[in-house]
Amino acid sequence: MQKEGLDIFGNKEVIGLSIIAAELTGMTMSIFLIILNLPFLYIGYRKIGTKFTIHTLYGVIVLSVCTAYLHHFEPVTDDLFLATIIGAVILGTGVGLVIRTGGSLDGTEIIAILVSKKRPVSVGQFIMIVNVFIFILAALLVFSLETAMYSIITYYIAYKMIDIVVEGMEELKSVTIISDVPEEISDALIKQLGRGMTYIQGQGVFTGEPKKIIYTIVTRIELSALRSIVEDIDPNALVAIENIADVSGSNFDKGPAH
């Protein structure tokens, strides 16, 4: 029972549910794997397209065959913590590569992709939320609480890896700067960072005075230098920083400026 329970965090969400259903009913996992994926494949066909659905169906078939074949091999390690970390990294990287190239490994990823396009939640975050409910269900109905907790750790690491692969490893930041000396700050930033910037015309609510608001995008590495430059010129400047998943166009160079 312990080894079969660990398979849940070695596979994806629909397969996890298939394992639970197979344990409860005594039927083979492959039957539930096909049945549970059909509604999601239909949604993918209607909402995303035929090409995506074919890629996903191919991924489901390959994953199912490989899972059934590799299940009979002896585990590389019996250390659950080591298996959790290494398995999560491999799992997240593989799923991220599949999603990045236009496919999916099971039905819940189809829903995750659709939700991420309309809501401020990443693919990895949505998958993590779904898995928490699956792990709780598994702990209550079939497997031990310890196995479920290891699974949650695995999928937390995996969803981080999915986001890194899908959205890129380099963290980009959008920065909005409000200061009484915007020209001086922008000149210094251009000279020292070499990043393009935009003035946004604004107006103070209390003073009614027009203001030039600086907007720019920098990498995580450049952020510390930007803060230092702004603080040296105007310690009272307002600096607002937001995370950006990706940037394209305007000849934006994602590497550090030279």
Shape type: elongated
Rg over CA atoms = 24 Å
Tell me, rounded to a whole number, the average pLDDT: 75
Strand content: 5-15%
In spatial order, strands of the major sheet run 2-3-1-4
SSE order: HHHHHHHHEHEEHE
Q: How many structurally independent domains?
A: 2
* Sheet with most strands: 4 strands, antiparallel
Number of helices: 10
Residue share in helices? Answer: 55-70%
Strand segment count: 4
Structural class: alpha+beta
Distance between the termini: 57 Å
Q: Unreliable stretches, pLDDT < 50, 5 or more residues?
A: 1-11
Could you characterize the architecture of this molecule?
The structure is a single chain. The protein contains 10 helices and 4 strands, in the order H-H-H-H-H-H-H-H-E-H-E-E-H-E. With 258 residues, it is an alpha+beta fold. The chain has 2 domains: 2-167, no CATH class; 172-244, Alpha-Beta Plaits. Strands 2-3-1-4 form a 4-stranded antiparallel beta sheet. Helix 7 runs antiparallel to helix 8. The longest helix has 23 residues, at 145-167. The model is unreliable at 1-11 (pLDDT under 50).
Secondary structure topology:
Elements: H1 2-6, H2 13-25, H3 29-47, H4 50-70, H5 80-100, H6 107-118, H7 123-141, H8 145-167, E1 172-178, H9 182-193, E2 197-203, E3 210-219, H10 220-233, E4 238-244
